[in-house]
């Protein structure tokens, strides 16, 4: 009887320690932001934050652009939506989240215009499959 109770207790403890994918994603987004942000991604692009919204299953990447890119006409003329979608499709680190059907949002803000939103794109499962 003691062995059965001990076995049940061990199984309960082991399953209680497992983190859901949502919790993992939320934790990893916070940890990434804390450790790496702000981070210079390219000459004129700074990653400010990475977040996760449990309600919509959306991983969001927030950037600030400066220099020549800091213009909505310039940023939109480079067809960023197409390039970002290819990035989502081809990034192996996102496989777990793509398999779970998560959304990916990319938002770019202006450095010179006090945080004015220049561009935003959200990719859903139907976009990257």
Write up this protein.
- The protein is of the alpha+beta class and 129 residues long.
- 44% of the residues lie in helices and 28% in strands.
- It has six helices and five strands, in the order H-H-E-E-E-H-H-H-E-E-H.
- It has helices spanning 2-16, 21-36, 72-77, 80-90, 95-99, 125-128; strands at residues 39-42, 45-53, 58-65, 103-110, 117-123.
- It has a five-stranded mixed beta sheet.
- Strand 1 and strand 2 (45-53) form a beta hairpin.
- The model is unreliable at 1-15 (pLDDT under 50).
Categorize the overall geometry.
globular
Put simply, the count of helices is: 6
> Main β-sheet: number of strands, strand sense, barrel status?
5 strands, mixed
Judged by helices, strands and strand pairing, the structural class is: alpha+beta
**Rg for CA atoms:** 19 Å
**Secondary-structure element order, N to C:** HHEEEHHHEEH
Helix content: 40-55%
Mean pLDDT: 87
Describe the strand arrangement of the main beta sheet, using strand numbers: 1-2-3-4-5
Strand content: 25-35%
